[in-house]
Amino acid sequence: MADAVAAPIAFSGNPLDRADNLRADPDALAGMMNWKARLLMLDGLMPSMDDGGRLAWGTLADAPEDAELVFLGLDRADGGEKACFAAVPPEGDARPRMANPQLWSLMTSLAPDQLALYGGARSLVDWHARHRFCAQCGGSTKVAKGGWQRTCTKCGTEHFPRTDPVTIMLVEYDGKLLLGRGLGWPEGRYSALAGFVEPGETIEEGVAREVLEEVGIVVRDVSYILSQPWPFPSQLMLGCMAYADDDAITLDETELAEAGWFTRDEVQAALEGRDDARIVAPPPHTIAHQLFRWWIAQ
Hints:
298 residues, single chain, alpha+beta, Nucleoside Triphosphate Pyrophosphohydrolase
């Protein structure tokens, strides 16, 4: 990706060693669950913070009684090796990020490494909380491989934490960028079009289908730019670029409130937050914001 995107990609850069070899070795993992092990302190799916504004940690003794523990990885900072865990909450939360205003503040206040660590932990424990029963037979499931698998206690089916791929794409025509405002979004808030990749699709096919469905425009020459984990609940955003040969928009009003074409000057004004900006840009912690900056730099 172009050097113009200087800021870290939010939710990327987890500082822990995932230590996959430990996940597959129950005895070795149990040996790491000692007084040195750390527990990420969560209130449901929300993190607790220390006095320095970083994620708060406790010991395994702080885990709720009978809570399932998942292994997040090894912290090798300062030359040590501490196993890090998180407790599965009673309930998950599949709501979009916008449904919890506290998360907006969180994403702008946590340091990049802390946000990445929290995002990965949130996705993992949320998946566990919402997958306590087998999709194959309905039997109860239990934690396996340190929390990176659940196994059905009845039929033995193995279940794994899911990540859902989502394309998010810039579309250009005649030097202008196609952007949309989602249903229920504030007036003026525009972003790149986006949608889930469906079974049997390539990324390129997903981009083309979503753009055609949402605004009725055929695109070509799809290319990949960058990606971002998005733990609400667990997407992988795939940032792409595409080009159109026509600018006639046919809006799908079940998907978007508005869509339009914007010049480089208009996108730049939005990124700078100028008073004369025609639109409001996506927040800096979003992949859409980074894609806007990449496009300007081209």
